[in-house]
Write a structure and sequence with these properties.
Rna Polymerase Sigma Factor, Chain: A, 2 domains, mainly alpha
Length: 152
């Protein structure tokens, strides 16, 4: 893969990387650091990418690992900040959704964000998080149920 191809794919993934890291770290500065670190790590490990078509999945997996490393390093509980860009939702409803997302356990929230907000398939979420597809489906179901109860 050339530098230009790498740069192009990173630019295409930029919003996804930001939203995924924000859903885990919930802090803009930490989020920016994690994204930059993930891009650098991906570039340095580019030779380990076996199939270019899975670049985005591979890069998101790297990012998630870095986000968890940052959380462990800081050993702190984080809170969800302004997070969502759904323009068709009313402002009050948008706030409700943000608060509901904040209340979800991290493992469920990350599956919800990857599947619904980033449009990854169940298989891709499974690969990114390194969990069985059945676990992805059960977390999606549990997350929908929890959101339904919270947003009613």
């Amino acid at each position: 893969m050339t530098r230009n191809t790498f740069a192009g794919l990173v630019l295409e993934s930029e919003q996804t990387l930001y939203r995924v890291s924000m859903s885990i770290l919930k802090n803009e500065t930490d989020c920016e650091d994690a994204v930059q670190t993930a891009i650098l790590a991906a570039y340095e490990k580019l030779n380990t990418l076996k199939n270019e078509e899975f670049f985005k999945t591979w890069l998101v997996r790297i990012l998630i690992n870095i986000c968890y490393q940052q959380l462990r390093a800081k050993s702190r509980v984080v809170s969800l900040k302004e997070y969502t860009d759904a323009p068709s939702v009313s402002h009050d409803r948008e706030i409700d959704v943000k608060l509901a997302l904040e209340q979800l356990p991290l493992k469920i929230r990350e599956v919800i964000v990857l599947y619904y907000m980033e449009d990854f398939s169940v298989r891709e979420v499974s690969q990114i998080l390194r969990i069985p597809e059945g676990t992805v489906k059960s977390r999606l179901s549990k997350g929908r149920q929890m959101l339904r109860i919270t947003c009613e």
